[in-house]
Design a protein that fits this description.
The structure is a single chain. This protein starts with a strand and ends with a helix. The chain contains 17 helices and 13 strands. Helices cover 51% and strands 16% of the residues. Among the domains are: 201 residues, Rossmann fold (3-Layer(aba) Sandwich), CATH 3.40.50.720; 53 residues, no CATH class. With 430 residues, the protein is an alpha/beta fold. A 6-stranded parallel beta sheet has the order 3-2-1-4-5-6, with helices on both faces. Strands 7, 8, 9 and 10 form a 4-stranded antiparallel beta sheet that branches.
Length: 430
């Protein structure tokens, strides 16, 4: 079985492989291909991966390539972790947001929007080539913004795909740790979109533990949340909604305080990550390093590999197990179109993910869900067709964007900054 990682030069790759080694009894991978256009980072990761594999008895053949076709041909599973423009583009997104007085976070607001415009054509390039050289393969998308990229593949490709995020499984792991539960028995009544989601109920086996989870979150938030005002806003939202809120909802429920915090920081998160990655790749090059270094925890992405291989295991072995993923709605969330991507609990088996029917979203969350979903769908169409008008309409819908004239000025600047990564049609319409 061939497993391919697109973006194999990513600092996340050792985390991914570390998770694979512990699951080879359930996922019989015979060859792993790392593909990246950055030859330097690819070579470093391949060398480190070979040492990791040797430590585990070299259970599969390892390859590195800059050739996308070679990497994809006959692949059973393709994991995408792409960053178009690398960290420089992310930093530019974040600084653009700060310049215009708004949030430029990687997946939310103008940062997520810019990232989607750059990334969707590359994700579709992978999907369309898979149609030719790996038509029976599964595309497992981790690339941010995960929900938008997954919707692009669902709407504009025939390839089977599932989008993944580490936030849902992170919730389960935290609940298990704080309440002393076995994570395999913790389930969630989870509804929303990627990085815009709510948990209506937590269960440990058949016991509803929601109240205990919410109380525990409040207790820990008082000690762990960096920004006091943001913390209190999130606590207030959770108590009012009586639902657990995805961490990323702070950008909507505490917009002003988050923006202030970002403005007052000495550097952007992207610049922080660059420093972390420099240290990581230095470790990866050390010939004595044969397992993922502790410093990788500072990069983010906790439980990343767990989510990936729980999914692949469930598909490969037709587990019919339950997991929160980004997948085609198909009526699961009432009032949403069938063909859009939602992030909900789904049953995972040989055919991929089938979203479980959800109770209609409460009025308190439905409006925001619908607004952001409309923004996401317009963003997909803007990226696919290079449509400047669709891009502007998408921005107008997003509550984290400026007013109409501000959106026009921001869009002009955003497109110009990202010109090397965008279709020419974005500029012919201007």
């Amino acid at each position: 079985m061939k497993l391919t990682v697109i973006g194999g030069g990513s600092s996340y790759t050792p985390e991914l492989l570390d998770g694979l080694f512990s699951r080879l009894d359930r996922i019989p991978v015979s060859e792993v291909w790392l593909m990246d256009r950055d030859e330097t980072r690819l070579a470093i990761n391949r060398g480190f991966a070979e040492r990791m594999a040797a430590r585990h008895g070299s259970p599969f053949r390892l390859h590195g390539t800059t050739d996308l076709r070679e990497a994809l041909t006959d692949a059973r599973y393709v994991i995408t972790q792409i960053r178009v423009g690398q960290m420089a583009a992310r930093i530019a997104d974040e600084k653009l947001g700060l310049k215009h007085g708004i949030i430029g976070q990687e997946t939310t607001g103008v940062g997520g929007f810019a990232c989607a415009l750059r990334t969707i054509p590359r994700i579709l390039e992978v999907a369309h080539l898979m149609e030719e050289v790996a038509p029976k393969g599964f595309l497992v998308n981790f690339t941010n913004p995960a929900g938008i990229n997954t919707e692009a593949v669902l709407k504009h490709s025939k390839i089977r795909t599932v989008g993944l995020c580490n936030v849902p499984i992170g919730m389960i792991m935290d609940v298990s740790k704080y309440l002393g539960c076995d994570p395999q028995y913790v389930t969630m009544d989870y509804v929303g979109l990627n990085h815009l989601s709510w948990v209506r109920h937590f269960y440990n086996k058949d016991e509803d533990i929601t109240a205990a989870v919410l109380d525990t979150f409040v207790e820990h938030a008082r000690h762990e949340w960096e920004e006091d005002d943001t913390r209190e806003n999130m606590i207030e939202a959770i108590r009012s909604l009586n639902m657990f809120c995805n961490y990323y909802l702070q950008y909507f429920y505490s917009t002003d305080t988050v923006a202030r915090t970002l403005r007052n920081k000495s550097c952007t998160r992207g610049e922080e990550v660059v420093q972390v990655e420099q240290a990581l790749f230095k470790k990866y090059q050390d010939p004595d390093t044969t397992e993922k270094p502790e410093e990788l925890g500072k990069r983010g992405g906790a439980h990343y590999s767990t989510a990936a291989f729980l999914l692949i295991d469930a598909i490969e072995n037709d587990r019919q197990s339950r997991q929160v993923v980004c997948c085609r709605n198909n009526g699961a969330v009432p009032t949403f179109d069938d063909d859009v991507a939602v992030e909900v609990s789904a049953i995972i088996g040989a055919d991929g993910a089938k979203a479980l029917p959800q109770a209609p979203p409460e009025p308190s969350i439905r409006g925001l869900m619908q607004l952001i979903k409309a923004y996401e769908s317009l963003t997909v169409e803007a990226a696919v067709h290079g449509d400047r008008d669709a891009a502007f309409k998408a921005m107008l819908l997003n509550p984290l964007m400026p007013n109409a004239r501000g959106c026009r000025a921001l869009l002009d600047e955003l497109l110009e900054i990202n010109r090397p990564y965008l279709q020419d049609t974005f500029f012919k319409q201007h």
